[in-house]
Structure to design on (154 residues):
């Protein structure tokens, strides 16, 4: 059975799909909803979660997960209780929706990496050559026609 976006959103609202949402996010969503009443709750929540994940991941924040310090990951920001199916949903998303993107990203990242490494090696080789040329010049080994730098009048 296929349902419309509106029916899906209503069903999610009826199920109280954010029942485990931390208070600070709930308050932020309520404040944003007052400023942007025409934007639906799910969109505001997406903005909040995406920005929180970006912020947390850039700061390398750790959480205590059963006595083990781990980097904060997106599972910590999914508002579902343990055992509700986060791993299964993540596996389906990775396997069916993101597989092509992940393959493309990996190949593209490898290509960019190889180009950057080649450019870096070229830059190092040029620096090394410049250093050799500079050392030759300082020693008077550079020839200007028939006159060496040590004989040059300047």
């Amino acid at each position: 059975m296929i349902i419309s976006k509106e029916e899906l959103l209503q069903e999610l609202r009826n199920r109280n799909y954010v029942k485990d949402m931390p208070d600070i996010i709930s308050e932020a969503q309520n404040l944003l909803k007052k400023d942007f009443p025409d934007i639906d709750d799910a969109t505001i929540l997406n903005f909040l979660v995406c920005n929180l994940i970006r912020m947390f991941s850039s700061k390398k924040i750790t959480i205590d997960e059963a006595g083990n310090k781990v980097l904060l990951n997106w599972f910590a920001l999914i508002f579902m209780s343990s055992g509700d199916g986060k791993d299964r949903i993540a596996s389906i998303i990775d396997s069916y929706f993101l597989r092509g993107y992940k393959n493309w990203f990996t190949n593209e990242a490898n290509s960019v990496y190889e180009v950057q490494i080649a450019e870096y090696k070229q830059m190092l080789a040029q620096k090394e050559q410049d250093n050799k040329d500079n050392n030759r010049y300082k020693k008077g080994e550079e020839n200007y026609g028939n006159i060496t730098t040590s004989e040059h009048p300047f």
Strands lie at 62-65, 68-71, 143-144, 147-148. The CA atoms of residues 22 and 79 lie 8 Å apart. DSSP finds five helices and four strands in the chain.
